[in-house]
Structures are given as structure tokens and as C-alpha cells.
User: Fold this.
Amino acid sequence: LNDIENGVLRANRPGPGPLSSPPFATNDPRAPVALSQCDPRIHFALNCGARGCPPIRFYAPDALDAQLDKATKAFCASVQVDV
Assistant:
């Protein structure tokens, strides 16, 4: 799952840990399927099962842009920030 999340969907970026590296090496045959750049809205669509994750939804290729906008707005509306 890490390879799909960080390798493909997050444009082959390292995970959040200080010692992490990109999942795919330059010569890895999976590298060509990685997105060229990460769409930050993906963070509001991925669900790892933690309590604070966004709800699980289905996304359609022809409506993805609108659905990611909706997921982003819904997640931001549900978050309470204590200052």
C-alpha cells in the first residue's frame, strides 16, 4: 500500500519519516506509472483506517476533479482547531 500511496499517488515522494526514501528507484519498472506531481487534495481522499481519516468514498475518473474538491471541502468543514 505504501508503494501505491507514496509511489504512485504522491508522485514517488518519500514517506513522512526522517529516514524514508522514495518507494521507486529510477530504474524501477513501476516508476513510469507514478504521477508527475502530487495533487495535495489526495490527502483528503486517502483513508488508512485511523479515526481522523476522511470517510471512504468511490471516485470516478470522469468526475475526479469535482470529487476531490468536494472531499477537501468536506474534510476541512469537519475539522475543529483549538487555538
The chain has a mean pLDDT of 89. The radius of gyration is 14 Å. The CA atoms of residues 75 and 81 lie 12 Å apart. The chain is about 30% helix and 0% strand.
